[in-house]
Amino acid sequence: MCGITGWIDWQEDLTKRADTIEKMTDTLELRGPDASGTWLSKHCAFGHRRLSVIDPANGAQPMIRPVKQAEDQDCVVVYNGELYNAPELRKELEALGYRFRTTCDTEVLLLAYVEWGPACVDKFNGIFAFAIWRTDEEKLFMARDRLGVKPLFYRREEGRLLFGSEPKAILAHPDVSPDIDAEGLAELFVIGPARTPGHGVWLGLSELKPGHCLVYDRNGMKMTTYWKLESRDHEDDLETTAEKVGELLRDTVERQLVSDVPVGTLLSGGLDSSALTALAVRYYDKTGQDQVHTFSVDYVDNDKHFKAHDFQPNADAPWIERMSGYLATVHHPVQFDTPELVDALQAATLAKDTPGMADIDASLYLFSREIKKKATVAISGEAADEIFGGYPWFHREEALQAETFPWSLAVGLRASLLSPELREKLRPQEYLSDKYAEAIGEVPHLPGEDQVQRRMRRMSYLNVTRFMPTLLDRKDRMSMAAGLEVRVPFCDHRLVEYVFNIPWEMKTAGNREKGILRQSLEGVLPHDVLYRKKSPYPKTHNPHYFQSVRSRLLDRLEDPSCPLHPLINVDRIRELALASDAGSHLPWFGQLMSGPQLFAYLLQMDFWLRHYRVNIVL
């Protein structure tokens, strides 16, 4: 895993701008702490920061290889990701006459492009964001993986294109100003911490969407969709479906365990993480490897303050102990206290380049730092709930009937938090409705579907294309800020394509959420773990956290120079903060973000506006 950046310019000689590309590259040091490299030509400059995972000795980037049948011309690549089918592609390319100099997947990806051109992406199984420059054609080709696990942003201007794994690389260019307009503010205050696909929040910044390619040359820029969710008739019976789900999951886990550096798994004792850990243990046993290392996160005194509710029916700790003992893993529990979580809000904001999921981001950042001390790669159960329909909103009539995103039901509350002037500019309800209509318009319904199947396909599509990217972005940015690569087997596109078309009554086999996944794991997990109720990523229940972020926010609002003042309804914020229940159960975003996270988000917003010296252009 790595950080990539680049600059294409038809009007300037970039060989004279080494200092700029090095500055852009340096912003990504945390993503790639092991090595740095740049490559410059007259009209193209690339930068790369490397986190060594496969072939540490020989996988340096930018990597250069000759164009097929044109030894005097080159292809140059910067790449962030992993190809899990690299061994098969390598054999196919060797049969076509190619000779490899390394054992890393970077060379496989680059030679695949040399052989197949843009169609190479159709052959890839993995997570990736990369850019390739052809010196003979003076053409840039960029692509991003199908589900958007790896990030890639770009900024196009007259005669110029800048790109980077994170916005900070582009913002480091001396000609780029840290500006944000009304639409960017709407993303933060109405959609945030989610983000509309393709939106870069910063003015002039875009995100290359998942499953998309971009070509940029002297004729301009062309965007192509190479993958998207498609609806197909599901013809397998229940038993066959469960077998296929189990086989796909086993295959992708085994592919993703390949590494030349230490690998561990994240273990919460829930269905998803337990399944991946169990499959990893089986693979390690089969291949004669040592015990699997597992990692869990919790918070000081959480056991004293935990209260069961629909979203979090029971605590994780006993289940983690159950699974670690059952699988005989080497377990590493990690625990944080409230002051650490509050202090890490700023580091999480810097990692994301915008405000994010508050303490949920901060804890993942701290967790990743601890894992990094013992492993460089971690396996995570992210995305199973979006793909298999595990969240409560898949099963609640009010959420299914709501004509909005089920994680954004409190738009009225959000609007009330804005200053009257900004509320008039952003029109929150209208903005959210437009983005929802845009998403609904994309849903690939099958002819002849009944009402229930149409509704559940719509909910699945919204989760995979709108909510899941929020969590994937969080996972990438927080983990890579600690130099940790996190792999997400449930995002294997073959599994996602297959499960998307499983009928809802089969997905909920046994009248249970994620029923088909549970059935596919019979014999892999103990019965009690297999049928444990969903419990989300753990957050702190310590009231001291809420008291701390509330106090800090109120202190910031007392400062006349606080940059939040023109943007928010200060009296309304104070009213919520001083209410009798202090907003502790205030619904704000999704299932994990309520009162404490709202105030922490505003703290992040204040820090972000000041640290990045954001210019608001209205």
From TrEMBL:
PROSITE patterns: GATASE_TYPE_2
CDD domains linked: Asn_synthase_B_C (cd01991), AsnB (cd00712)
Superkingdom assignment: Bacteria
Pathway assigned to this chain's UniProt record: Amino-acid biosynthesis; L-asparagine biosynthesis; L-asparagine from L-aspartate (L-Gln route): step 1/1
Record site feature (Important for beta-aspartyl-AMP intermediate formation), residues: E382
Molecular function per GO: asparagine synthase (glutamine-hydrolyzing) activity; ATP binding
Gene3D superfamilies referenced in this protein's UniProt entry, alphabetically: Glutamine Phosphoribosylpyrophosphate, subunit 1, domain 1, HUPs
GO CC term, one of those recorded: cytosol
Residue sites binding L-glutamine per the record: D105
Protein name: asparagine synthase (glutamine-hydrolyzing)
Lineage per the UniProt record: Bacteria, Bacillati, Bacillota, Bacilli, Bacillales
